[in-house]
Amino acid sequence: MDSLPLLLEGFAAALTPMNLLYVFFGAMLGTAVGVLPGLGSSMAVALLLPVTFTLDPTGAFIMFAGVYFGGLFGDSISGILLNTPGNSSAIASTFEGHKMALSGRAAQALATAAIGAFSGGLIATTLVAFGAPLMAEMATLFGPAEYFALAVFAFVAISAVVADSVLKGLAALLIGLAIAFVGIDAQSGASRFTLGIPQFFDGISIIVVTVGMLALGEVFYIASRRHHPTTALITTQGRPWLSLREMRQAAPAWLRGTAYGLPFGVIPVGGSEIPTFLAYGTERRLDRRRRHPMFGRGAIQGVAAPEAAGNATAGTAMGALLTLGLPTSSTAAIMLAAFVQYGMQPGPLLFETNGDLVWTLLASLFIGLVVLLILNLPFAPLWAKLLVVPRQYLYSGIALFAALGVYASGGSLADVFLLIGIGLIGFLLRRYGLPLAPVLIAVVLGPLAETELRRTLAISEGDATALISSGITITLYTLLAAAMIAVAIVRLRQRSRVDV
């Protein structure tokens, strides 16, 4: 498969006035929601999901492309200016970025973040565009047992990594599986977890789950806290671009951060937190060898590397989603849900059955990065003004928008009441420190895992050894075991240090 002509056709389809407007609107929405602490790109995609059903699939996914990268950069704006990262993926950038802002270099910090996000995303998207067909061909080697092993790998890896306790991660995973299995079993016709309520027979819509868990759950959590921390917003002054000397300092960090982010996009570890912290730690160690160390006083490398790593992870995560149907983060899980709602299943056959849409989407990722740079390099301080909106008005608007979106997508008041129930579950998860990513991954991948498990056992006539009968499945389970052992060792070391 020759990727370049197909990608050029994708650009021809994406570069229409209406599609450019979709990308522009998506980037604006993603950045605006990402700026708000506690929300982020996954929230932006979840809120947009009910709205896009009036659009054709191409227009909807082009808008998602803008949201996808816009939300990541919005997370960093609040971290740099307010020392409150919009999402966990922006924590590493906040350490040095906020120090740069305090020293009067907020504009340069935002510029570093914007260019880092652009460079990391550009390299990753280029690799995806030219490597996705090869990954799709390799994915044809996967059968039912391999896809089940891949789903188990995603379940356990994400549950173990994103939570401070493996038990909390697995508890969140079980909650997601319980939600996913609500409804009528397609094979036996038996009702499961429906409580005899007719509205549950068709299952719980992924839109209700994502919007309720992310948007309404956050609204309830904020409303439950009487006293909110008050922090002063730092105004940005000076030039919103980098000098030649600053470019020379930041460029190697951008490349090193990108190198960290690329492989983590295809590994189901829950998002970009790990590569961003690895990139930050590397720059900090390198800084100690310099004659005049800058870390702790606002080092530009401490912003450049994590930002590039985060967007590189997001870029290759899209490749894993399109070619394997594997969501490696909560945002990718919601994107997968959007594909399913449009009657498409990401995986190796997607390039054959919906090739026009896939290549237009890949082209729109490039366009979205350029729009992101244009929007945020000079105008990032304007986005920060959203932080001064009173929280009671802001979150009331989010709750209203979530309820209207869910009602518009299904036309049922039962969905609105179900939305409130899921929102309360999301509130309880936040209240007791359970992660949300395993819930979303389980809701999306749970039915797939069940189907592939049943297919494997049906083909093998009930022989459970068929689940580990191929080299791919043995490799996946071995990697999973090694990852679990590594996580256990790291946790034990952390506890021993705390005890000392």
Describe this entry's structure for a reader.
Keywords: Membrane, Transmembrane, Transmembrane helix. InterPro entries: DUF112_TM (IPR002823). It is a single chain. The chain has 500 residues and is an all-alpha fold. It has one domain. The protein is built from 19 helices and two strands. It has helices at residues 3-14, 17-35, 41-48, 57-82, 91-102, 106-139, 144-161, 166-180, 206-224, 244-264, 273-288, 301-324, 330-341, 350-353, 355-384, 391-410, 413-431, 437-459, 471-499; strands at residues 183-184, 191-192. The chain has a two-stranded antiparallel sheet with strand order 1-2. Helix 2 packs across helix 15 (355-384), helix 5 (91-102) runs antiparallel to helix 12 and helix 8 packs across helix 18. It is globular, with a radius of gyration of 22 Å. The termini are far apart. The relative contact order is 0.18. The model has no long low-confidence stretch (mean pLDDT 79).
> Distance N terminus to C terminus?
58 Å
How would a crystallographer describe the biggest sheet? 2 strands, antiparallel
Shape: globular
Question: What percent strand?
Answer: under 5%
* Poorly predicted segments: none
Number of domains as seen in the coordinates:
1
Q: Order of strands in the sheet with the most strands? A: 1-2
Please count the beta strands (DSSP E, at least 2 residues each). 2
- Radius of gyration, rounded? 22 Å
Let me know the average pLDDT: 79
Structural class: mainly alpha
In which range does the helix fraction lie?
over 70%
SS element count, helices: 19
Tell me the quaternary state: single chain
- Listing every helix as H and every strand as E from the N terminus to the C terminus, the arrangement reads HHHHHHHHEEHHHHHHHHHHH
